[in-house]
Amino acid sequence: DGGITQSPKYLFRKEGQNVTLSCEQNLNHDAMYWYRQDPGQGLRLIYYSQIVNDFQKGDIAEGYSVSREKKESFPLTVTSAQKNPTAFYLCASSIDRTAPGGAFFGQGTRLTVV
Amino acid sequence: SQQGEEDPQALSIQEGENATMNCSYKTSINNLQWYRQNSGRGLVHLILIRSNEREKHSGRLRVTLDTSKKSSSLLITASRAADTASYFCATDYGQNFVFGPGTRLSVLP
Fold first, then answer.
1. Nearest to A23 by CA among A57, A85, A72, A94
2. pLDDT digits over B67-101, tens only?
3. With an 8 Å Cβ cutoff, are A100 and B48 in contact?
4. CA Rg, chain A, in Å?
5. From CA B50, how far away is CA B18, in angstroms rounded?
6. How far is residue A33 CA from its own chain's centroid?
7. Which residues of chain A neighbour B5 with C-beta distances below 8 Å?
8. Phi, psi of B25, deg, nearest 5
9. Once rounded to an integer, what is the mean pLDDT over residues A12-31?
10. CB nearest A98 (choices: B31, B90, B101)
């Protein structure tokens, strides 16, 4: 079955650590996105990539980094520079933004700073 | 901010009633999409309406778009307890999807 997979589901980070969240899709989508969701809030765009080896900053990119070496994979690193990383992180992919099926989302990774 | 805004923030209804949620936005868009999110899960795409369309249906869902008022509405008819979730509109204004803060719908049995 095609889909988008995020791992791990839960992640704990110590102060000063970098952590990497995984996002893999087998939908053959060119575009991939990372969003951050805080409790009771909407989604804020961190980074997006429209094609392999290219990515763009979203609205809240500071303290985060990404790579897009393969079409299927778009990992997000939360660096120690991100001062308030505790949140729910969602990865998405899409053929393009006009596709009737919209964006496909993973099940999310809940990151907690301990 | 070009973020869409859903209204109301929260809505509680009885099973069988209709639920209406609204989304307003600020700039011209290519399309508008509605998503559903169950607690602690990812988002699920419900429906996309293009800027040249005025109304679309999908099962119990009806979406309208009024570009002159820069607003959209999502109507869920004959609601069920399983419809309890948060609903988000996402606007595509040519750069990316921009999500609103969502409407939390509770359908009481």
1. A72
2. 999 999 999 999 999 999 999 999 987 767 788 88
3. yes
4. 13
5. 24
6. 6
7. none
8. -140, 175
9. 94
10. B31
